[in-house]
Amino acid sequence: MEHENLNQRSKKLNLRGADLASLANISAPKLSNFFRGRINLDAGKRKELVQVLDDLEKLNACFPVVVSTSDAKVLAVALERFRTGLFKKFAKATKAIDWADPEGLNRKYPKLFAAKTKRVKNVA
After folding, report:
1. In angstroms, rounded to a whole number, what is the distance separating the alpha carbons of residues 60 and 57?
2. Does a structural domain hold residue 124?
3. What is the C-alpha separation between 56 and 71, in angstroms, rounded?
4. 14 Cα distance to chain centroid
5. How far is Cα 13 from Cα 106, in angstroms, rounded to an integer?
6. What pLDDT is attached to residue 28?
7. Which of 17, 22, 41, 52 qualifies as a cystine partner to 46, CB 3.0-4.6 A?
8. pTM of the predicted model, to two decimals?
């Protein structure tokens, strides 16, 4: 059950298995087998995996937009800086700001905030 929970958390963060494995210092095939329920990880590796997922979720909470997880190297640097406390002041400032859509934003950018966009087919 725990492997399914951890797999769902990684999917919510939009992480690829190989990137998560490299961030948690686990081989990619071993992590894949763990997520499928074929093997168990020892307590140390499981704790490290949970810590990486917890830190990534907290890192995403610091920013008003989702942190990109497409580049594992940049993500590793961001995680290291987050763990050393470099984002604490930024997180405090981000939480103090109201990020709700301002009044009239729908009128100014109707294409961005339209519920449905109509596509017109080219008829030749």
Report:
1. 5
2. no
3. 14
4. 6
5. 28
6. 92
7. 41
8. 0.73
